[in-house]
């Protein structure tokens, strides 16, 4: 692990295994977290978008974090603590700290299109939990864009230590590095992994290692290490899958790939609907092609 920087390296935004009745299968989740670490991942991010946190009860959400910590150790667990209210997000950060986690990931206010003052107040409140906070910039889903200037201000105030960058705009990596050189950039979308790794990212909050951890870790390590001879062919092989991470159906797609790869992906909770036949066929074909090429 990375000592005082537990958000560095490959941290998997874990999919959450559900039973047929859509209850959470905590034993399978514990096994999945352990399997990811055994296959080279540095840690896990429970209760991210991929973990369907929005449709969990508070009891389920807390137990998911505790299950991950029991499986792989608190230093490897960085939970998402997003909530509509700042007080609730801070409580989730405190719960993470009590469970043994060393960092948390936080979206900006996402109940409405927050202005800059609201964003600063939100991060200030959660920072009071005492845990390092990694911001999560997802302007596509939240309608709040943590632009480089705002990230630099959040970092300068001491509220955040890193940012999961999901805008897809790889040019921002260089602006962030200029404005806040000590702020750790984390790859937030699987399909710009190579571009952001080359630009100096310190980690990857990742989706597709849920299905193919070894190949994804090899890709990240090669890209981050500047070994483009290894990274480029792998990236081309995996990109038909990685691009699903930036689509509306990313949870369903990654869970389907997990099923095909012999893991438990399983169903999603409503309102997420099953993939359309054409989408399912595309994910299935890309996953089977990757597996046939020896990727795992």
Automatic annotation (TrEMBL):
Gene3D superfamilies: Aldolase class I. InterPro entries: Aldolase_TIM (IPR013785), DapA-like (IPR002220). The keyword Lyase applies. Keywords: Lyase. It comes from Streptomyces violaceochromogenes. This is Dihydrodipicolinate synthase family protein. Belongs to the DapA family. GO terms for molecular function: 4-hydroxy-tetrahydrodipicolinate synthase activity; 5-dehydro-4-deoxyglucarate dehydratase activity; N-acetylneuraminate lyase activity. Its EC number is 4.1.3.3, 4.2.1.41, 4.3.3.7. The lineage of its organism: Bacteria, Bacillati, Actinomycetota, Actinomycetes, Kitasatosporales. The keyword Lyase applies. It comes from the Bacteria.
């Amino acid at each position: 692990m990375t000592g005082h920087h537990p958000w560095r390296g490959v941290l998997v935004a874990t999919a959450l295994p559900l039973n047929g009745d859509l209850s959470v299968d905590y034993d399978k989740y514990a096994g999945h977290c352990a399997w990811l670490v055994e296959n080279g991942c540095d840690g896990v991010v429970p209760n991210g978008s991929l973990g369907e946190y929005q449709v969990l009860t508070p009891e389920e959400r807390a137990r998911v974090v505790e299950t991950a910590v029991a499986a792989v150790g608190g230093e490897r667990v960085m939970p998402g603590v997003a909530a509509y209210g700042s007080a609730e997000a801070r409580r989730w950060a405190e719960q993470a700290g009590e469970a043994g986690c060393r960092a948390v990931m936080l979206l900006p206010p996402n109940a409405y299109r927050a202005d800059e003052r609201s964003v600063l107040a939100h991060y200030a409140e959660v920072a009071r939990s005492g845990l390092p906070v990694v911001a999560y910039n997802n302007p596509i889903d939240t309608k709040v864009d943590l632009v480089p200037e705002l990230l630099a201000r959040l970092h300068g105030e001491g509220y955040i230590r890193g940012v999961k960058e999901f805008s897809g705009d790889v040019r921002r990596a260089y602006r962030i590095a200029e404005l806040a050189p000590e702020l750790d950039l984390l790859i937030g979308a699987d399909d710009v992994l190579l571009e952001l790794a080359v630009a100096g990212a310190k980690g990857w909050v990742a989706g597709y290692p849920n299905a193919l951890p070894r190949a994804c870790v090899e890709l990240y390590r090669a890209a981050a290490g500047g070994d483009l001879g290894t990274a480029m062919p792998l990236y081309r092989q995996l990109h038909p899958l990685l691009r699903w991470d930036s689509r509306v159906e990313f949870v369903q797609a990654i869970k389907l790939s997990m099923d095909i790869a012999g893991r438990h992906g399983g169903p999603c909770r409503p309102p997420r609907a099953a993939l359309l036949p054409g989408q399912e066929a595309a994910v299935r074909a890309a996953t089977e092609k990757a597996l046939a090429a020896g990727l795992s």
